[in-house]
Amino acid sequence: MRFIVTILLISLSFGLFAQLSDPSQNTADRLLGSTGSLNIAGYADIDYNQPLGGDQFNNGKLDVHRLVMLFGYKFDNKTSFVTEIEFEHVKEVFIEQAFVNHRVNKYFNFRAGLLLIPMGIVNEYHESPTFNGVERPNVDKYIVPTTWRELGLGFTGRIDELSLKYQVYMVNGFNGFDGTGKFTGKNGLRSGRQKGAESFSSSPNFSTKLDYYGISGLKLGLAGYIGDSQSTLYNGLDKKDAAGIARADSSTVGVAMVGFDARYSRQGFELRGQLNFTSLSNTMAYNAFTGNDVGSKMSGLYLEAAYNIFQKNKELKTELFPFFRYEQYNTHQSVVRTIEQDNAFKRTELTAGLTWKMTPGTALKLDYQWLKNDAEEGFRNQLNLGVGIWFY
Questions:
Q1: Residue 27: per-residue pLDDT
Q2: What are the two backbone dihedrals, phi and then psi, of residue 168, each rounded to the nearest 5 degrees?
Q3: Structural domain total, the chain
């Protein structure tokens, strides 16, 4: 709670003097052009990660982490389609978004298909030049978990008179059990993302977010998600089979997640922060049934500050951002009495580095990380180098 209050006070104290270039649009919003035209966008991350120190040699990892192509088609002034096709690690192919959007009026849109869950910052704004650091924050990997998308439908819109953007969706939930338990203490909910790949649903889940952009330079977000994980054990189950229903119930987990985020920009200074908290119910039965060790509460936060040192030279068309990020997340913040709390799942990360934006859509990145968990002494170190591109 103190983190939330601090972020709000800092943002509000400076926000009246800030400048906001675009309050609400992500790449999918920007992608659509004139009626009847196919528009193309894309982004990519090429990374090098080198662990340092310790008593043993460690190979560095080089990876075309992702190469993503986006396509948008506008059928008429009201109806459009957007899709995002991702190639990961050269050999894997995923669909990150694929939805139809129908504008009813300037306040109200209907949307259906494969949707990004609006939680945090990076899950919706994940193009490489939009964030500092070679890798995305790990709060957005283990807690949110990015890139989180599911199949469903809902409503979106902007109320400019109130400086609000809203999203409300009904989607399929996490795959909690399909013969094996997907949730673990170490990775939380991450392995349960269905990603629109032959997804199944045993009960609906609900996601919503409000973004406020009424103070120049400041954007505040409040998001919520609630529902039960899905289980294949319900499929074909006789409604009179009490023992079978009890068994299926033991293979599900109730998920309630809330997220707060803030972004602030003024005269070359950029601040951002995020807090996520997740409460999981029925974990005692789930762990007993699956043999896993998923926690009953998870949380994560990060704070980041950056400054464009070329800000005062208006003739330069390039930007250079030194930045620092503090991050802490815990997938075992609380556990039921039948399992032991693992201190290795409470992790702290410090990241310092440089982001050189040669153009708004190209970035060279360098950062150094200090990584630790509460089960070990001292920090592990890692050097990261990366190239990021983004065009639309």
A1: 67
A2: -140, 120
A3: 1
